[in-house]
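3.2 Worked example (two chains)
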Amino acid sequence: MKRCLSACAALALATVALAACGEKAEVTTGSAGAGQPLRLMLDWVPNADHVGIYQGLSEGDFAQAGLAVRVQVPSDPATPLELVAAGKVDAAISYEPELMLARNRGLPLVAIAAIVQRPLTSIISLGSNRITQPRDLRGKTVGDAGIAYQHAYLQTILARAGVSTDKVKEVNVGANLVPAMLSRRVDATLGGYWNYEAIQLAQRGKRPNVIRMDEVGVPAYDELVLVVRRDTLANRSDELHRFVQAMARGYKSVRRDPTAAVDTLVRANPGLDRKLQLASVRATLGAFFPSAPGKPWGWQDPARWTAYGAWMLAHRLITNPNAAADASTNQLLAGQGV
């Protein structure tokens, strides 16, 4: 859902013809050759966040792991977790908060690796508005997409900054985060990504100011995670281990040569804006890998997951404590054992 909103707000979308956000044909790409079939559904259209997956496909990492990976693009960005829960795909990329919500509904899902290991969601404003810290929001209008946990982000941020919520006007602008700023309908937005919308605005000379969620009071979380059913983890752990290790090799290749990796991404998805994708990949490189020294690619910090789950419970975004308990596992990562 969040990626759909970001994509619809984007000035350059990708890979497939879109009539409108959420209205497009499903697209499947992947590696050729024999191997165990594995269906991976993206969270939204291919973009810089997925660069390591396309690099792994191009360099044969999945094929060498004995896997015939097929990457699918969802026709509706709200469905990947439901589809993996129903067994329609083997794995899906989603977001830590969305996984918590799905588990709260009883879906038997677990995150097996973090792809983007810190929040991308941000408060973004045009440079001329001079909103550089949360207290600058006093007396301002903030646009968002009407997502409950992002509303709770704003409440948390304002409380920490000592700004009363009645001093900030919150407006649901749907998918029109960037247009709402450019038209001056709102002073700032909450929901765009510091590695995407903010970069687009900078490339247009708008000098965006960015306030990152995890720097102003929202508990840190993993923006993008790889999700499977619990029974898939139990019954196909060796296959999933090979899959995760191959994906790790793809992202490590991106780190070695971001430019070549973006070229691979754009060749696979010709509609992408190469300049934007390269800037986004370079900005995101650090978030593709754990900040804790010695931890493997895909690491999900158990303490952070516990803290974020407790925050969701405290804000009644989830009501079942089991939604947060054991929502992630590191057992498939390098050096962690299967």
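3.2.1 Second chain
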Amino acid sequence: MKPIQIAGGGIAGLSAALGLARNGIPSVVFEKQKKIGASRHGDYEGLENWIFSTNHDVIQSLGLNLASLQSFSVSEFLVHCPPNNPVKISSPEPFFSIVSRGAHDQSLDQWMYKACIENGVEIKLGETCDFDKADIIATGSQKAAAYIQGGSFQSHLPDQVHLLLGNNFAPKGYAYIIIRNGKGTLATAYKKPMSGAKNYVKETITYFHNVGISFNLDNTFASRGSFKMPAQNPFSKQITIGEAGGYQDLLFGFGMKVGMMSGWMAASHLAGNHEHASELHKMLRKKLRLSYLNRVLYERLNDRMQYSLALALAKSDNPVAHLRSAYEWNWKRMFTLVSGRKPVEIHYS
């Protein structure tokens, strides 16, 4: 059988390769970097738990065992909305699992790479393929709609997670600190204002220093993300997945599980499981349409409204369930997307 050619060795491309291997189909992954995960920086990121229900466990579908990955669950964190006092948000179920990204042995990227090798996937490092011959395109973001900047640091502080909201630190986005086992990540994710852009990393560092969380960044990083909807019919000659295909959460920028599921969808289609692939695509488009609407609403919140939202989640018995409901269809509400340039109208019955 001729191997399926996959352009891109990120988590979406590796997920597609693992999905094909589970169906007995050979594949070859072309990764332009000389090591899987080399485009990442050893920073901490979250595998989200609120976009999909437990019925859609893509990690289990791909034959991966999360227990073998170095990760930790976060069920509590502090939300900072200056000048108000920080708000503690706790949940009976974890918000996300924190994992490390990069080319080091304990990263999510290398964990998936090793799983691919164990399943007989051929991976060509430092090589690019002929795009016209690629069956799956998983090359990452093509345009910049949002930006993330930050860095890593060493710390003697206990494990903790902080979320910082406010236009001074992350306009239309958020900043955060994650500290685990003496290592920390600081980042700010934002959309650039039309004018008067600040050094948001500096503002974020200054704020945390003022509240007693002091550190010096050892390594800095910067990346970008794109916001677009997946194609209505992705199963053409080439299947585009991951951020390249628009499979990225538009609300919070999380999306590792979204990207992994898009790889599983592509593998299912190429394995001949067309009905299952179509069901996955339909579900993903529903989730991402709602994430787009949520993004439009979130961008309209001022600092005071963001604080009110944090207070509402803090009072909830299960804030993860509240977040999850934002990605589920509710037939009591009708969402009308007027156009890509006009505002979203929301009609409540």
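3.3 Remarks
The longest strand covers residues 146-154.
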